[in-house]
Amino acid sequence: MDMNRAFILRKEDKNPQWRVIDAKGQTLGRMATQIADMLRGKDKPYFTPHTDSGDYVVVINAKDIILTGKKWEDENWHTWYTGWIGGYKTMSPKELMKRDPEKLINLAVKGMLPKNKLSRQLIKKLKVYADEQHPHTAQKPVATEVID
Asked: Domain 16-67+101-143, what fold?
């Protein structure tokens, strides 16, 4: 390899893998940072910031994640505006977990990705499921440990 040339990953050279992460007993923030790094490809030696060099990530047992402290009640994670006067709605993680546990992990990971067109492409490679069953067994995903 010539040391005077910069390495840029080509589309033809990328080889994304499928990874499975078990969220049972994991802290949401720590797990989300590692998932964001896997989606971007920052854990690989050929990481290039402007290309999609990451893997597909399947998260199972989303209903069993942990939030430390008083974050279940005190924080407002999901906010939206209905379009009507006084229609600004907020939802705590506890309410969001009852309604849609997959969305909690999606929001956490999405917040840790860069805010650009590439992140909208990367978040599509994240698949989150509340239980252990997932339809991606044909891709032969590799079980990945999240380091706490």
From this structure: Ribosomal Protein L13p; Chain: A; (3.90.1180)
